[in-house]
Amino acid sequence: MQGYILNTIPIKNEDLIVHILTPFGIKRLYRFYGARHSIIHLGKKIDFEEEGNGFFLPKLRNVMHLGYPWENNLDRVYIWQRFIGLLNKHLFDIYELDSFYFNMLQDGAIKLSKQNPLRVGLEMYAELLSFEGRGDKGERCFICGSKTGEQISLARAFLFAHPTCIGGKTFKKSDILKFLALKTTLHFCDEDVERMWEILTKGL
């Protein structure tokens, strides 16, 4: 089975509980001396086997790293791990999942080889918002309920607000709506992409 490592939790004697996102859901498996293995690390794609033992958690066995060319680039790895960490918190305490989440990471990991990592992260997030039915933020400020104008601010989860209600950086509403509809950042300059990434890191 293949999956992406969402989280590793140290237990004792360098053992780990490993959370792995697969096409069928999230596996929570036990790995003896897992901390000694560089393969078992946040964001890594692995091939693995699950061995049930009828006690505590199934074991993680026969792990093989399925690497990407960009894993030698620390900047790309950092952005990837930040997104994975946010996704792990977003999916906390969930076991069964649609294959969308695995496929989203699979597609994003391929794009990371050539594209700006911040743009890849934002475009994956736009896909996630759409899949979860959160892509249409409407025309009203989530703080005061009044209609928003052409200039908006974005809160966590990219909720629309008046700049006077939450402060912070402003964006053209039409640009954000286009981003959410088309799931692309091509119409944003690098500065806007960096500003949007800062908002994304507050939580999915």
Question: Can you tell me about this structure?
Answer:
The structure is a single chain. With 204 residues, the protein is an alpha+beta fold. The protein has 2 domains: 1-114, OB fold (Dihydrolipoamide Acetyltransferase, E2P) (Beta Barrel); 133-204, no CATH class. It is built from 6 helices and 8 strands. It has a 5-stranded antiparallel sheet. The protein has a 3-stranded antiparallel sheet with strand order 7-6-8. A hairpin with a 5-residue loop joins strand 1 (2-10) and strand 2. Helix 3 (117-131) crosses helix 6 (190-200). The model has no long low-confidence stretch (mean pLDDT 92).
SSE layout:
Layout: E1 2-10, E2 16-22, E3 25-31, E4 45-51, E5 59-65, H1 74-90, H2 100-111, H3 117-131, E6 151-154, E7 160-161, H4 163-166, E8 170-172, H5 173-182, H6 190-200
Antiparallel strand pairs: 1-2, 1-4, 2-3, 4-5, 6-7, 6-8
Helix pairs in contact: 2-3, 3-5, 3-6
What distinguishing features does this structure have?
204 residues, alpha+beta, OB fold (Dihydrolipoamide Acetyltransferase, E2P), 3-stranded antiparallel beta sheet, 8 strands, 34% helix, elongated
Q: What portion of residues belong to β-strands? A: 15-25%
C-alpha termini separation: 27 Å
Q: Based on CA inertia axes, which overall geometry fits?
A: elongated
Strand order of the largest sheet: 3-2-1-4-5
The first-level CATH class name of the largest domain: Mainly Beta
Task: Please give the CATH architecture of the largest domain.
Answer: Beta Barrel
